[in-house]
Fold each of these.
Amino acid sequence: MKLNDSIQFVKGIGEARAKLFARLGIHTAEDLLFHLPRTIEDRSQTKPISDLIDGETVCVQGAVAGGIKAYRSRGRLSVTQATVSDGESIMKVIWFNAPYIAQTLKSGLEFTFFGKAVWRGQCFEMVNPVVEVCDGEGRKTGRILPVYPSTAGLSQTHIRSAAENILSTLTEAPRDILPASVIDENHFMPLFTALKNLHLPQSAQGFEAARERLAFEEFFVLQTGIHTLGEERKNFKAIPIKNVKCISDFAKALPFELTAAQKRVINEISADLLKDTPMNRLVQGDVGSGKTIVAAAAMYASAMSGYQSVLMAPTEILAMQHFKNLKSLFLSFGFETVLLSGGMTAAEKREALKKIKDGSAQIIVGTHALISDTVTFKNPALVITDEQHRFGVRQRTLLTEKGYGAHTLVMTATPIPRTLSLILYGDLDISIIDELPPGRKPIETYSVAEKMRSRVNEFIAKNIDEGRQAYIICPLIEESEALTAKSAVEYAEKLKKTAFKKYSVEVMHGKIKAAERKQIMDSFAKGDIDILVSTTVVEVGVDVPNATVMVIENAERFGLSQLHQLRGRIGRGKHRSYCIMFCESGKIAQERMKIMCKTNDGFKISEKDLELRGPGEFFGIRQHGLPELKVANLATDMDLLIRAKESVQNLLSEDPTLSKPDNKPLKEKVCQKFAEVGENGILN
Ligand code: ADP
Ligand code: MG
């Protein structure tokens, strides 16, 4: 069999099953070889019954002694019972709802039983053990089995035997992507050996070593791709922003004292701005830590030095809000701020574009409309992107290219686990604002069930009567944003007629026109609206300190980091704030709710998020426009990631364009992986 052969040529795979494999993205023998098991189940240990330990999961070999009892319990469950003897001792085996087992057991042969042995006072018992004839060729028992990601209708056995078949009939070995030098340095086994160790694991250690090798390779490809993206930028020179001392005047003019963390980060940024190598810095700070003013300080230095600066936000609401705040702030210093966003009229856009081009605007705020071809800057020296996790890597570089290698600052409120930030940003410098402005009270958070509904409504009413405002966040509807918007509208209508008749209730969602959304947000900020029923469009950045209550409907549908982001909309003023999450039961959901109720610390929450999502659903990798990881685990493979990163740097310093023959397979792989996610042509 050849690597490129269709999966249908594999023994036992017909048309129907091939379709199931296709659902997993497996079309060829090679695809299946790289459909790797996530973990193993160790069924290798076999023990005599007399050596069993209560609660252990093992294999026992023996013959059926005495009769097989098959009956239906009162609950109409079919029960099959037998006694097994290994010649010395006996053990009981029971199956529920598996009447066919009786036929298998009748044969009088010797069997292997794999399951959990539980001591029942007189003898051991196994419930629903895996059973197979001991013919020396153990397929399901007596060995270590790989456990694959699968799909409905395709059993582990199907995948296992297909993989075994391919491995035993393959006449060519898959090509190694890692350059030989990298394999040597890391003492890696050859790729083919690794694949065998994964599909036919002989030991847990062998499996893990092979998994690490492939995880390393994944990280290696990913980081080579990202590094190459970053390389383009390094060729640019940035404009040094010479006047940073003036920031102290800026700080003095503020109505509050900057926190120590804000001052430290501003100092770190200032040191970068002075240089002609472009700043490449990530400012990471929990919601409400005051990132905007830090950005504004840098923009101020840029304006005072005679240059433009650009702030790009992921949503129109957020862009508008930044615009409003920065405009009044910079007006007092005599600088002009303009907004550029998709929702503006043609005439408004024209006017903004003109000011951006002729330099009459020093402070430029906008959405991704800023990346469009029609925008020409006069002399941008600083480019800031806010709430970075919403942008793809490619978008970020595009804006930087427009800024001709300007200094870049990235601000993120979602604390990105270190593994991910290393992957996403590579050699990006990181500043952390690890302190909230004084006087912030932690948000009290509760997870409640539906039966508390009327009490929660009373609680909202009481807070509004005290002069506060509330958000009600509508459930996410997976299939479509349109449906989510529709449900928000309907929900708001219902609330207006029922629980909150007395109050002013408005609805907000992504399908409302930008201008109208701005109006709604303005009147909410002014206090004209008591309750804002909204989809997650309020998730980022919106700042209404008088809103102190947030109710999140169907909180189980939101991820932890998203819940934390949402909750960050309250607790921004001097009043005590409350977050109430309605949640349907479910193990993961309960776990999430517990964490939310326990901590306000965004870093802890994001680490937990990563852990709970586990392998397979890697934290936003795809949202960032990066290829998916199949083997590597961001929560646990930190060491491998760092090793891969160093190794990539070494390799690229020797062969920056990957043109040596030994590096060609890697280059092809990187191009292919990044093309899959729309990052075409990065290596050319
Ligand atoms: P985020 O980091 O979430 O973007 P913002 O920049 O929106 O936070 O700041 C949140 C609020 O805190 C704003 O109203 C801002 O004016 C205020 N703020 C920022 N820094 C301070 C400070 N040092 N002292 C008091 N209030 C501050
Ligand atoms: Mg912000």
Amino acid sequence: MQETMIEEAVACYLGQNHYAGVCLKAVLFDMDGVLFNSMPYHSDAWHTVMERHGLHLSREEAFLHEGRTGAATINIVYQRQYGRDADPELVKQIYAEKSEEFARHPEPERMAGAWELMQKVKACGLTPVLVTGSGQTTLLERLAHSYPDTFDRAHMVTAFDVKYGKPNPEPYLMGLAKAGVAANEALVVENAPIGVQAGVAAGIFTVAVNTGPLNGQVLLDAGANLLFPSMQAFCDQWEQVYRVLKG
Ligand code: CA
């Protein structure tokens, strides 16, 4: 990607949000599909457990709902089949089973390029913040091992903190508050259309990394300001992106 392309994307972002400029201070990272290569396991666990309850959610569709809270995903499918929301007890039951099923898969690896990118972000003096819709405690605990000294609890937004969740801007607005920065002082890294929508709705410059099976166009349609084919590609171009965003 040419640096002029990045400059154009930033100019477009500033125009849309009526900001005078950008001054990068924090990077808001989504977790699944960004920090961990965990989405294939999630989509498989969703499909298996929903079928067990007579609810139809293909592995492919699970990727489209990525980033929603568990309850929201369950209710979308339940509404489609029965025309009403699922009983809260059933939602709790299905989500507990889904978490259990996910934990039966091998431990997810760090996404290629994510560790290296994190070191670059830290070396620039930027604050990393985690913003995930996940309530998967096994994976949240694994963060401390896979990304040591990176996210303390004061710089994490998870399913346990939010009321609405992505695509509502709420989680990213909470992430800004936790970092103590304004929207034009942050950058969102997302891999899912719903997550991109949330970042854009929060008024934050949003970088999409297409680490799953979806066509990259859906991420641009969701409003992504920049699109990279992988975390490694974003990492490799970090210096150019940072030069433009540091203000
Ligand atoms: Ca994700």
Amino acid sequence: MKPETVLVTGGAGFIGSHTCVELLEAGNDVVVIDDYSNSHPSALDRVREITGKSFAVYEVDLRDRAGLSAVFEAHPIDSVIHFAAKKAVGESTQIPLEYFDINIGGTTNLIRTMHQHEVTRLVFSSSCSIYGDSSAAPLSEADPANPTNPYALSKWMCEQVLSQACVYIPELSVIALRYFNPIGAHPTGRLGEDPLGVPNNVMPYLSQIAVGRLTELSVFGDDYPTPDGTAIRDYIHVVDVADAHRVALEHLDDRDGFRVFNLGTGSGVSVLELVAAFSKACGKEIPHRIAGRRLGDVASLIADAANIDREWGWRTRRDLADMCRDAWNFQRQNPEGYPV
Ligand code: WQD
């Protein structure tokens, strides 16, 4: 594919930074915007270190129309990968309006600014959480949306905005990737998941226990209708997720319009199975206790990942052991996370 200039919103974040590595190593130019509300500028130093490449970075809030437009004026943007969003299920039930403002407002401002600058190619970070508490397992893109929390609703609303934009702006090409549960880290251990504050997500919580920063995992419920009673998720290696974004860019030109693809492995893992797998990877016992369910959680989310394979011949290449090994390798090398 001809090298492109790709605007990566949220490029300092967990998935964004890993995707920047894949894009740069594939010969693309990258322009990053991030407001650092849940990321570290030093993650971008690690991207430069791993790739040996330099790139422009702007500290911009996606809702800042002038600030965002200035970035489009400064660079010949060919396409956009949009990661920037708040993304914690539990947190979204506490601050729903912030989730709607940032996730939906930010996305709407982005697509509007793209249109003003005649940029018509977008890969959008969506989420399996829009399927809600579906009994269908595995979940296909044709399954109905039933968001059960403000985070999931915000992602579903963004898909609706983008899908409708494609109806009225025929030259637009948008691919939405519905991530299941990205975990793991770059194999060098120089890039990984380091959320600000106490982690909402299970894998950084586990790795911070293993490195001594936290003491015990609360397992949110063991009364789900699953084999061991704990909730099941489809964990996918973050480098597989990043690679899928590189491939999605190549397929934006297949046709115009709005397309959706699940991004998962097709295999489900319970919380207790994840605890055991991570404990094996780090060689340590992980103290944990059963607690109540978390508001907004669902029993099971497993991907039917057949579409992306059929359309693009793409599938995940890393398994749960790889994910746990790489997540631990990052945390072990960076006990306190990224340098501030
Ligand atoms: C996983 C499981 C929890 C913390 C994430 C992202 C979201 C989306 C989907 C991309 C659940 C349990 C967690 C803890 C626990 N990805 N858990 N104790 O909620 O599935 O959502 O993946 O868009 O952006 O947030 O991930 O890691 O929070 O939870 O028992 O301290 O672990 O109940 O069953 P979730 P998670």
